[in-house]
Amino acid sequence: MEFNQVRTFDRRRRGSRRRFKNNMYDTFAQFLFFSFSAVWMELIYHIFTFKAIDFKFIYPFLFSIGIGAAFAFLTGLFPKRMNKVLSVIIVVALALFYCTELVYKSLFKVPLVMNLAVGGAGDVTQYWKEALREIVKNGPAILLMFLPILPLVWLLKKRQLFTRHMYRVSGVSLIVALVLAILPVALINAMGKNSMIYEHYYELNDQSLAAEQMGIFTTFCRDMEGVGRGSGDLSELLAANASSSSVKNQDQKGTAATATPKPTASQDTVDTSPNIMDIDFDSLIKNESNKEVKILHEFFKNQTPTNKNKYTGMFQGKNLILLTAESYSPWAVNQTLTPTLYKLTHEGFVFNNFYTSLWQTSTSDGEYVALTGLIPDGTNSMKRSKTNSLPFTIAKQFNRFGIESKAYHSNSLSYYDRYLTHPNLGYDFRAAKLGKLSDEYQKDIFTMKNAALWPNSDYDCVQATFKEYSKDSLFHAYYMTLSGHCQYTFEGNNMAAKNEDLVKDLPYTEGGKAYVAQNIELDRALKYLIDELEKQGILNDTVIALSADHYPYELDKKDIDSIAGTTVDSDFDLYKNNFILWNAEIKTPIEISKPCSSLDILPTLSNLFGFTYDSRLLSGKDILSDSEGLVIFNNKNFITDKIKYNNSTKDVTYLVDKSEVSDEYVTEKVKEVKALFAASAGILENDYYKYLESQLSFPDYKTTLTRKDTDKDDK
């Protein structure tokens, strides 16, 4: 009896070992399959997106192995049938994720990150025609993404695979998954804080470069954790900046802008006092319990303001028509075909080193930068600001004079939630279509010809709306244009097709010709504005300002080089643009060579119109002040008066003699740029301006403005 019991025990023990061994083999097979699938899809994404594979793929490879181990663990936790279903879901979902990222990157030139995937899903679907084109274009890559389904079908037929793992096997599988997940992170930390991969992983400065260096799946997950967005790194960056600032304000409270008399241009002296408001930061810091808000107080207290200058109040009492031009660039300017654009870019203020970055949420972020003077935090900043306090916008500054600021867009009212965001900026916002909104918003729709066309005409939009505000004694109107919208082809783009005959003889590629053809409509809109203003006798009293939301990123590089007549540098020159700032009274062009960008538009206009604002509280600077120029790009590349800095390579290009630039200068500028990103994110995340409301004292404006007396010949 005892002998039989021993034999039975031995058989059970051998059977248990055999099951454990077989279960381990099965788990290993699942690990190999899921690791292969993750590495394969990452590889296809890299090849078709970045056009090359090099040693940097080691990190995407290691992260993908860790992902495979995690999936192998998950597909052994449940009964066999459920594990099989889960394995199919995982592979299909993974393939769909990579295909979506591939198409999105091909279409928008930036990766699709978490907040865009959730908050911007409705907006992105309106690009379905463009997306369909990119799907067809990337068809081979999409088919290759789904290739792992074939070995999965074979594995599913294997009886022993995907059975529920033994507890010991699950334990081993979990440990392996954790080790493989930690391994690439440990290697990144071993590389040190000065390495590029460390910066990408912990700061996520540039999602495109991060995707190339550590994989799109890891980049998406890091963004989902909030890395590189919000104010997670606010304390370290801003506290360091505040403590190491080489220039401290001696008088932190300052004087309100209206306390100093405004001299006229004919006077010998020019008011060069700082453009600041009477804010008692010391009191705010002392009484603030919110740690992040207190850090922001300390940061802004220590910022160096910009000074007033001979241009301060130059446009005081004038009207303003401000435009954000869809995908505008200097390549749209043709002396014969777009003569008004040519005129406006060569007259008035001429900014020879103006740049417009491509931000994560393209058009919406482009508007956000120009209208708020702040750096977007990475995803849907304008939407996220729709209930925030924004006291310094141009619209609200005009509104304080009793002037109703009006904004127009010829697309839908709901797109990018502009029906909520733009009223918060201070505008009475109207559009040509309802979009996803109900009929209760019909009152906010204006009637224009050919509204159903895609894209429709900027000329038709301006013609339909000009009379709504031009009848007012003083006005401010804002347009988000549409005619320059992609795709840049004569088939499927109504504006390109409309003007095809006018551009047929241009020595450009078809895409280049289509792009110029579309911008002929913008040119017509601007000509109409100037002609109508002149008819009403208010041309001299009106300022026209125009900047782009972004460069035409849907133009192929060969199209851009075709129009430019040279190979355009992709790190900096691709983003070089125009800032049109024009008034008919300026008889001689005022050329500005300082590096500047869309971030600087709000403070520059605020100074020119004599508005009260605090220059310390914006990321941009008054271009016309004596401050050093600083152009900041989405990937933290930057340009100053002295250098161009490539954040991805850490390369410095010297714009002056190298001996004039110290190592400390470069280091401090890198810190400054990072701090401005963090500060802007902190403003957005914490609704920071509301904490200053009791301190912001604006003048008690009258219902009408008094125009500044100026010597027109002096302009």
Describe the structure.
Helices cover 47% and strands 9% of the residues. A six-stranded mixed beta sheet has the order 5-4-6-1-7-9, sandwiched between helices. The N and C termini lie far apart (114 Å). It contains 27 helices and 15 strands. Strand 4, helix 20 (418-425) and strand 5 form a beta-alpha-beta unit. The relative contact order is 0.12. It has 715 residues and is an alpha/beta fold.
Poorly predicted regions are 243-267, 707-715
* Rg over CA atoms: 29 Å
Strand fraction equals 5-15%
Mean pLDDT: 88
Oligomer: single chain
Share of helix among residues?
40-55%
Number of distinct helices: 27
The spatial strand order of the largest sheet comes to: 5-4-6-1-7-9
Overall 3D shape: globular
Counting helices, strands and paired strands, the structural category is alpha/beta
Number of strands: 15
Alpha carbon gap, first and last residue: 114 Å
**What does the main sheet amount to?**
6 strands, mixed
